[in-house]
Design a protein that fits this description.
By secondary structure, this protein is an alpha/beta fold. The chain is built from ten helices and 15 strands. The chain is elongated.
């Protein structure tokens, strides 16, 4: 698709309609990244950003989104009851699906997500769309009902349904973008990579800075930050040697990241030696919190430069603690992660 296809037809193809799926709360951050990468934002919905893009960006890999798909069809919400699915009619652009099926096994798989109360489930929606398309394309539908995994090599379609409407997109045979190739190891509390990428973006990291994650876990935040801005010194510390082992495996030779064992409340760093701190500390939910948050804030304030910036994932009640501890909270972004609704707080150290 894209460059090769343009070369084959001998002229520039019109822009494609794509849509990005996102963690709820990250939509504006994702839209800003997409714009910076050359996409034109057409609209923002809950968990989605709709864009018009040059064909060469169909295979783009933005970091703050869960996935980017070629839009094949859109339609109004068909309705809340199962009988509505029988009347669903989608005007689907079939050529991109045929191109994706070419040269491989003729198997389709449809995954769906829904917002709103309905009398049907995601599998009903997947099969309503997939059965119709498989018949038109002469392909086989691999059902996901009951949690079944599609066979390797199946062409993946993604349907998203909300009161704002139904979108159908083409992923093809690749994995979703949020499944990072670098991620070889995880530990309890490992952060969703697009959330980590969004936090790094909010930190406004610049070349030549020193960036610290004092609760680095498996290294997700620093690896995502290094992917976006490699010309920076990154420091990751954690008390857990197993976490540091996982981080080193995931970093896989990224020499700008240094790992060390240290307590986040007693950092072996000079005062005022860190420009940015981006972190997801333990809050006693997935990972036990052994250190009072106030002690962490005091130590983090010590190692940051004057005007240094902290980007931290917090339970909703904690940003006021940051203000009380001598920081100015510039911005908060509430996100939905694993059924919870934490805040990303962006704070500046007050001198």
């Amino acid at each position: 698709m894209s460059r090769n296809r343009q070369k084959a037809v001998g002229y520039a193809l019109p822009e494609l309609h794509l849509f990005a799926s996102t963690v709820h709360g990250l939509e504006p951050i994702a839209a800003a990244e997409l714009t910076a990468r050359g996409h034109r934002v057409l609209g923002i919905r809950k968990r989605q950003v709709l864009v018009s893009s040059p064909p060469e960006l169909a295979d783009d890999r933005p970091r703050t989104i869960d996935d980017l798909l070629i839009q094949l069809a859109s339609a109004p919400d068909p309705g809340p009851v199962k009988a509505d699915l029988a009347a669903l009619r989608l005007d689907v652009e079939l050529e991109p699906i045929r191109a994706a099926l070419d040269g491989g096994e003729a198997t389709l798989s449809v995954s769906a997500s829904m917002i709103g109360r309905r009398t049907y489930n995601r599998y009903d929606l997947e099969e309503a769309i997939g059965t119709h398309l498989a018949r038109r394309l002469g392909a086989r539908l691999a059902s996901r009902r009951g949690g079944a995994r599609p066979p390797e090599g199946a062409v993946e379609l993604r349907a998203t349904l909300s009161p704002e409407g139904l979108l159908l997109g083409l992923r093809g045979r690749r994995a979703p973008l949020h499944r990072r190739e670098w991620r070889k190891a995880t530990i309890p509390g490992s952060l969703h990579p697009p959330v980590a990428a969004a936090m790094a973006r909010l930190a406004e990291v610049e070349p030549g800075m020193t960036v610290l994650d004092p609760c680095c876990g498996a290294g997700t935040i620093l690896i995502e930050a290094a992917e976006a801005e490699p010309s920076v010194r990154y420091l990751g510390s954690d008390r857990d040697p197993e976490a540091l082992d996982a981080a080193a495996r995931n970093a896989d030779g990224r020499r700008q990241i240094e790992w060390q064992r240290a307590d986040a409340a007693e950092l072996p760093l000079p005062t005022g030696s860190v420009d940015r701190m981006v972190t997801n500390p333990a809050w006693g939910r997935q990972v036990r919190a052994d250190t009072p948050f106030q002690a962490l804030l005091d130590e983090w304030k010590r190692v940051l430069t004057p005007g240094g910036r902290l980007v931290c994932l917090l339970p909703p009640e904690l940003p006021s603690w940051v203000e009380d501890a001598g920081w100015t909270v510039e911005k908060t972004v509430q996100v939905s992660v694993s059924g919870r609704h934490p805040l990303i707080a962006v704070a500046e150290k007050r001198s």
